[in-house]
Amino acid sequence: MNNASNLIQLNDMVEIHEFFFQANDQISMHCCLWGDFNFSLDGILQLQIGDALYLAPPNYGLWLPPQTEHSCIAIDQQITHFICIRVHPYLANKLSPQTQTLVTRPFFHTLVKEALRIQHSHPQQYQHLLQVIYDQICMADCYDHYLPQTSHPVLQPILAQLSDSAHFQHSIQKILTEFRISERHLLRLSQQELKLPISEWRNRAKIVHAISLLKQGLAIKQIAYLLGFRHSSSFITFFKRYLGKTPAEMRLEH
Protein backbone atom coordinates (compact mmCIF):
# COMPACT_ATOMS: atom_id res chain seq x y z
CA MET A 1 0.00 0.00 0.00
CA ASN A 2 1.45 3.42 -0.93
CA ASN A 3 1.97 6.31 1.48
CA ALA A 4 -1.04 8.24 0.21
CA SER A 5 -3.31 5.30 0.98
CA ASN A 6 -1.76 4.98 4.42
CA LEU A 7 -2.51 8.63 5.15
CA ILE A 8 -6.11 8.35 4.00
CA GLN A 9 -6.57 5.27 6.12
CA LEU A 10 -5.08 6.95 9.19
CA ASN A 11 -7.32 9.97 8.71
CA ASP A 12 -10.29 7.59 9.02
CA MET A 13 -8.84 5.96 12.14
CA VAL A 14 -7.75 8.87 14.36
CA GLU A 15 -10.00 11.77 15.35
CA ILE A 16 -9.18 14.80 17.52
CA HIS A 17 -12.00 16.48 19.46
CA GLU A 18 -11.71 19.66 21.51
CA PHE A 19 -13.92 20.72 24.45
CA PHE A 20 -14.05 23.58 26.96
CA PHE A 21 -15.56 22.67 30.34
CA GLN A 22 -16.75 25.06 33.02
CA ALA A 23 -16.14 24.15 36.68
CA ASN A 24 -18.08 21.01 37.66
CA ASP A 25 -19.32 20.32 34.13
CA GLN A 26 -19.97 16.59 33.81
CA ILE A 27 -20.28 13.98 31.10
CA SER A 28 -22.42 11.06 32.25
CA MET A 29 -21.37 7.43 32.06
CA HIS A 30 -20.86 6.29 28.48
CA CYS A 31 -18.57 4.16 26.33
CA CYS A 32 -17.26 4.25 22.77
CA LEU A 33 -16.47 1.55 20.23
CA TRP A 34 -13.16 3.34 19.65
CA GLY A 35 -10.34 3.86 22.13
CA ASP A 36 -10.08 7.28 23.80
CA PHE A 37 -6.98 9.20 24.84
CA ASN A 38 -8.20 11.96 27.14
CA PHE A 39 -6.01 14.79 28.39
CA SER A 40 -6.12 18.44 29.37
CA LEU A 41 -4.24 21.29 27.75
CA ASP A 42 -5.28 23.45 30.69
CA GLY A 43 -7.03 22.35 33.87
CA ILE A 44 -7.65 19.07 35.67
CA LEU A 45 -10.13 16.40 34.66
CA GLN A 46 -11.39 13.58 36.86
CA LEU A 47 -12.65 10.39 35.22
CA GLN A 48 -14.54 7.54 36.81
CA ILE A 49 -13.99 4.09 35.33
CA GLY A 50 -15.88 1.41 37.18
CA ASP A 51 -15.27 2.02 40.89
CA ALA A 52 -11.91 3.74 40.28
CA LEU A 53 -11.27 7.48 40.05
CA TYR A 54 -8.50 8.79 37.79
CA LEU A 55 -7.01 12.29 37.57
CA ALA A 56 -5.59 13.78 34.41
CA PRO A 57 -3.67 16.99 35.20
CA PRO A 58 -1.68 18.77 32.47
CA ASN A 59 1.20 16.67 31.10
CA TYR A 60 -0.67 13.44 31.86
CA GLY A 61 -3.52 11.80 29.96
CA LEU A 62 -5.72 8.73 30.25
CA TRP A 63 -5.82 5.97 27.66
CA LEU A 64 -9.16 4.13 27.63
CA PRO A 65 -9.35 0.98 25.48
CA PRO A 66 -12.40 0.54 23.22
CA GLN A 67 -15.74 -0.03 24.99
CA THR A 68 -14.48 1.27 28.35
CA GLU A 69 -17.43 2.76 30.22
CA HIS A 70 -16.53 6.05 31.92
CA SER A 71 -17.76 9.44 33.08
CA CYS A 72 -15.85 12.65 33.73
CA ILE A 73 -16.05 15.92 35.62
CA ALA A 74 -14.02 19.13 35.41
CA ILE A 75 -12.76 19.70 38.95
CA ASP A 76 -10.83 22.90 38.21
CA GLN A 77 -12.53 26.15 39.19
CA GLN A 78 -11.44 27.73 35.90
CA ILE A 79 -12.19 26.63 32.33
CA THR A 80 -10.70 23.24 31.43
CA HIS A 81 -9.41 22.89 27.85
CA PHE A 82 -9.98 19.20 27.20
CA ILE A 83 -8.84 17.04 24.28
CA CYS A 84 -10.16 13.62 23.31
CA ILE A 85 -8.24 11.67 20.66
CA ARG A 86 -10.32 8.77 19.39
CA VAL A 87 -8.46 5.75 18.01
CA HIS A 88 -10.06 3.10 15.77
CA PRO A 89 -10.08 -0.41 17.33
CA TYR A 90 -7.58 -1.61 14.72
CA LEU A 91 -4.99 0.93 15.87
CA ALA A 92 -6.09 0.61 19.50
CA ASN A 93 -4.89 -3.02 19.41
CA LYS A 94 -1.32 -1.67 19.35
CA LEU A 95 -1.93 0.12 22.66
CA SER A 96 -2.62 -1.25 26.13
CA PRO A 97 -5.79 -3.33 26.66
CA GLN A 98 -6.02 -1.70 30.12
CA THR A 99 -6.69 1.86 31.24
CA GLN A 100 -3.38 3.67 31.66
CA THR A 101 -2.05 7.10 32.56
CA LEU A 102 0.34 8.34 29.87
CA VAL A 103 2.89 11.13 30.13
CA THR A 104 2.29 13.91 27.57
CA ARG A 105 5.32 16.07 26.76
CA PRO A 106 5.16 19.76 25.70
CA PHE A 107 6.04 18.62 22.15
CA PHE A 108 2.91 16.47 22.09
CA HIS A 109 0.74 19.40 23.18
CA THR A 110 2.26 21.54 20.43
CA LEU A 111 1.48 18.84 17.84
CA VAL A 112 -2.15 18.62 18.93
CA LYS A 113 -2.63 22.40 18.94
CA GLU A 114 -1.17 22.63 15.43
CA ALA A 115 -3.36 19.73 14.23
CA LEU A 116 -6.46 21.49 15.54
CA ARG A 117 -5.40 24.70 13.81
CA ILE A 118 -4.86 23.19 10.35
CA GLN A 119 -7.24 20.22 10.25
CA HIS A 120 -9.67 21.93 7.84
CA SER A 121 -7.30 24.21 5.94
CA HIS A 122 -4.34 21.88 5.22
CA PRO A 123 -5.66 18.28 5.05
CA GLN A 124 -2.43 16.66 3.83
CA GLN A 125 -0.28 18.25 6.56
CA TYR A 126 -3.00 17.39 9.07
CA GLN A 127 -2.82 13.72 8.15
CA HIS A 128 0.96 13.73 8.59
CA LEU A 129 0.49 15.25 12.07
CA LEU A 130 -2.01 12.51 12.94
CA GLN A 131 0.69 9.91 12.27
CA VAL A 132 3.17 11.68 14.55
CA ILE A 133 0.52 12.16 17.26
CA TYR A 134 -0.42 8.48 17.15
CA ASP A 135 3.26 7.48 17.30
CA GLN A 136 3.74 9.73 20.33
CA ILE A 137 0.83 8.07 22.13
CA CYS A 138 2.29 4.63 21.39
CA MET A 139 5.72 5.64 22.74
CA ALA A 140 4.57 7.57 25.83
CA ASP A 141 5.73 6.56 29.31
CA CYS A 142 2.83 5.03 31.20
CA TYR A 143 1.53 4.34 34.71
CA ASP A 144 -1.48 2.51 36.06
CA HIS A 145 -2.72 5.71 37.74
CA TYR A 146 -1.51 9.27 38.30
CA LEU A 147 -3.02 9.53 41.79
CA PRO A 148 -4.30 6.04 42.67
CA GLN A 149 -6.96 5.57 45.34
CA THR A 150 -7.78 2.70 47.65
CA SER A 151 -10.60 1.49 49.88
CA HIS A 152 -8.15 -0.11 52.33
CA PRO A 153 -9.57 0.68 55.82
CA VAL A 154 -6.17 1.71 57.23
CA LEU A 155 -4.71 3.53 54.23
CA GLN A 156 -7.79 5.40 53.00
CA PRO A 157 -8.15 7.82 55.96
CA ILE A 158 -4.39 8.49 55.89
CA LEU A 159 -4.56 9.43 52.21
CA ALA A 160 -7.47 11.75 52.97
CA GLN A 161 -5.27 13.59 55.48
CA LEU A 162 -2.21 13.62 53.22
CA SER A 163 -4.18 15.08 50.29
CA ASP A 164 -5.98 17.69 52.41
CA SER A 165 -4.50 21.06 51.45
CA ALA A 166 -4.97 22.25 55.04
CA HIS A 167 -2.27 19.74 56.06
CA PHE A 168 0.26 20.31 53.26
CA GLN A 169 2.50 22.28 55.60
CA HIS A 170 2.76 19.24 57.89
CA SER A 171 5.20 16.41 57.28
CA ILE A 172 4.06 12.85 56.68
CA GLN A 173 5.61 11.92 60.02
CA LYS A 174 3.54 14.53 61.87
CA ILE A 175 0.30 13.43 60.21
CA LEU A 176 1.03 9.82 61.16
CA THR A 177 0.98 10.73 64.86
CA GLU A 178 -2.84 10.76 64.56
CA PHE A 179 -2.85 7.14 63.38
CA ARG A 180 -1.70 3.96 65.05
CA ILE A 181 0.64 2.89 62.30
CA SER A 182 4.39 2.95 61.89
CA GLU A 183 6.03 4.68 58.97
CA ARG A 184 7.48 1.35 57.86
CA HIS A 185 4.04 -0.27 57.85
CA LEU A 186 2.67 2.69 55.87
CA LEU A 187 5.42 2.29 53.26
CA ARG A 188 4.53 -1.38 52.82
CA LEU A 189 0.82 -0.59 52.48
CA SER A 190 1.54 2.18 49.98
CA GLN A 191 3.56 -0.10 47.71
CA GLN A 192 0.98 -2.87 48.04
CA GLU A 193 -2.16 -0.77 47.45
CA LEU A 194 -0.94 2.20 45.39
CA LYS A 195 2.18 0.83 43.66
CA LEU A 196 3.85 4.10 44.72
CA PRO A 197 5.95 5.31 47.65
CA ILE A 198 3.73 7.34 49.97
CA SER A 199 5.97 10.39 49.53
CA GLU A 200 5.53 10.26 45.73
CA TRP A 201 1.76 9.94 46.13
CA ARG A 202 1.67 13.03 48.32
CA ASN A 203 3.90 14.99 45.93
CA ARG A 204 1.43 14.28 43.12
CA ALA A 205 -1.47 15.42 45.32
CA LYS A 206 0.43 18.67 45.95
CA ILE A 207 1.00 19.16 42.22
CA VAL A 208 -2.73 18.83 41.50
CA HIS A 209 -3.48 21.46 44.14
CA ALA A 210 -0.66 23.73 42.93
CA ILE A 211 -2.09 23.76 39.39
CA SER A 212 -5.49 24.77 40.75
CA LEU A 213 -4.00 27.59 42.85
CA LEU A 214 -1.92 28.79 39.93
CA LYS A 215 -5.01 29.09 37.73
CA GLN A 216 -6.77 31.03 40.50
CA GLY A 217 -4.05 33.68 40.24
CA LEU A 218 -2.27 33.19 43.54
CA ALA A 219 1.32 34.42 43.73
CA ILE A 220 3.97 31.74 43.34
CA LYS A 221 5.46 32.65 46.72
CA GLN A 222 2.07 32.17 48.37
CA ILE A 223 1.51 28.81 46.64
CA ALA A 224 4.95 27.65 47.79
CA TYR A 225 4.04 28.53 51.38
CA LEU A 226 0.64 26.80 51.22
CA LEU A 227 2.30 23.63 49.93
CA GLY A 228 4.81 23.57 52.76
CA PHE A 229 7.91 24.91 51.00
CA ARG A 230 10.13 27.34 52.89
CA HIS A 231 11.51 28.91 49.72
CA SER A 232 9.88 29.68 46.37
CA SER A 233 12.92 28.32 44.55
CA SER A 234 12.38 24.87 46.10
CA PHE A 235 8.76 24.87 44.99
CA ILE A 236 9.69 25.98 41.45
CA THR A 237 12.23 23.14 41.15
CA PHE A 238 9.63 20.67 42.50
CA PHE A 239 6.97 21.90 40.06
CA LYS A 240 9.26 21.75 37.04
CA ARG A 241 10.37 18.20 37.90
CA TYR A 242 6.77 17.00 37.62
CA LEU A 243 5.41 19.15 34.79
CA GLY A 244 8.48 20.02 32.74
CA LYS A 245 7.95 23.77 33.12
CA THR A 246 8.06 26.36 35.87
CA PRO A 247 4.88 27.77 37.46
CA ALA A 248 5.54 31.08 35.69
CA GLU A 249 5.87 29.31 32.33
CA MET A 250 2.60 27.46 32.85
CA ARG A 251 0.86 30.67 33.86
CA LEU A 252 2.21 32.46 30.79
CA GLU A 253 0.99 29.65 28.52
CA HIS A 254 -2.58 29.90 29.75
TrEMBL record:
Gene source species: Acinetobacter brisouii CIP 110357
UniProt entry tagged with the keyword Transcription regulation: yes
UniProt-recorded name of the protein: HTH araC/xylS-type domain-containing protein
GO molecular function: DNA-binding transcription factor activity; sequence-specific DNA binding
Residue ranges of coiled coil: none
Keywords assigned: DNA-binding, Transcription, Transcription regulation
One of the Pfam families matching this protein, by short name: HTH_18
Domain HTH araC/xylS-type: 152-253
